[in-house]
Amino acid sequence: MTPSVDLPKHGPSVIAGVIQRLSVSQLKRHKLCPRAWFFQKVMRVPEPSTGAQQVGTEGHAQLEHFLVTGEDVLGTFARAGAHLLPTPGPDLLVEQPLNGEPPLMAGGIPFTGFIDLVDARRLASDGALRITDHKFTSNVATNAASAEQLADADTEPGLQMVGYGAWALSQVERFPGLRTLELEHLYYQTRGQRLAASVVATVPAEHVEREWQTKVEPQVEAMKEHAQAARASDVPANYGPPCGKYGGCPFMAKCLTGENKTMSLRDKLLNKASESTPLTVAAVERDAPEPPAVLPPDAPTPTPVQTAPEVAQATEQPAPKRRGRPRKAAESEQPTDAAPSPPSALRVLFVDCIPTTIDGPTPESLTSYVDTMHRKVAEAGGVDDVRFAGSDSALGFGKWRGALAMAARAELPAPGSYVALGVSQSELMQVIVEALEPAFDVVVRGLR
User: Fold this and answer.
1) How far apart are CA 144 and CA 155, in angstroms?
2) pLDDT means over runs of 10, the chain (448 residues)
3) What is the 3-state secondary structure of 44-101?
4) Hey, what domains does the chain have and what are their CATH numbers?
5) Crossing angle between the packed helical segments 400-410 and 367-381, to the nearest 10 degrees
């Protein structure tokens, strides 16, 4: 079978305003929020790295070395899933590039990137090919995708795995007789108990081909159109849950200020924010930024991303732990007479716990702050309770969560110590705590 996803080998010429190359991660970012993708790939606004990303990078490197050489260099996270891995060997395709010959293509644009693992050991006997992506996550039970999601290109995990499957279908000579694709997410838990789990979607080749043609190809055409926008405000934004996903959108400050005045509800909320708590942040630099994937019409000069104080990197230690302590400045940048910040200048949050020893003022409950922010969002949305906003409200269909999180980030509590109790029993408290964590200097969580 020669699938229709086997497109021409040569990519398009480089023209201003036209996408030069794509990646599966770009598809996922655009699917989550087209404007966030525009900030990242068209305006080339840099993003800060996170501790979770570092853990994933190290884990992927360990797994790659093990699968290629057989040498056991697995850390505690990756080792939990060793029993789910195939026997190492030279016939496994590890870190397989997508831009080989022929490359993965959509809309005439070539893809770059790598597939973690391709196992063709059952291809000759069963016509089956297994494609695996390693996922390091804080909680397997709550964060793992389902098999149905892995097979559906309308979902984030499915968009990735269908893309990898489409690459395999384009490799007719390499994988003759390919009939079935096993699309696998292999999860490794990074908090608490060391766990691993495999989720596999087994689908016929025709299913992947259809998903790519009917869902991904149209999305790429939309991305081409968005790449030619003159301003970020001309690109649609997916307000709501995506704003707070993965620790919060790194482009939130730019999306809410400047030329982007596209959502009246957000404008109302920002106008209510105190002038004493502006969205001010430190510039973040990248050591070696990659060449732009998109050449915008006016080629804007990249500007530093604005972000909340950096969260401490995750380590291979069980929860709970302190998070959110700001990065120390380099010695050459520290004034010789600099004094440590007094406790009263810090923001400390105790989540579902109360300190037994208090050095300073007694922590106050976060409840009154939550009530205040809820009232402001409800008033801006014209409802009494955001949780019961109707379909005709700007807060309907769960969009109140993103609006409440945005309002909290725009108007932080005053410096001091706060206690948030009963978080799991209050949707409002959950949203506020998740929104505030990156902005607090210290966050302490109680055992559950």
Assistant:
1) 13
2) 39 49 91 91 77 81 95 94 96 92 90 95 97 95 95 94 96 95 97 94 97 96 92 86 77 65 47 41 35 50 41 41 41 44 73 76 87 87 82 78 87 90 86 90 80
3) CCCCCCCHHHHHHHHHHHHHHHHHHHCCCCCCHHHHCCHHHCCCCCCCCEEEEECCCC
4) 22-227 (3.90.320), 320-325+342-448 (no CATH)
5) 120
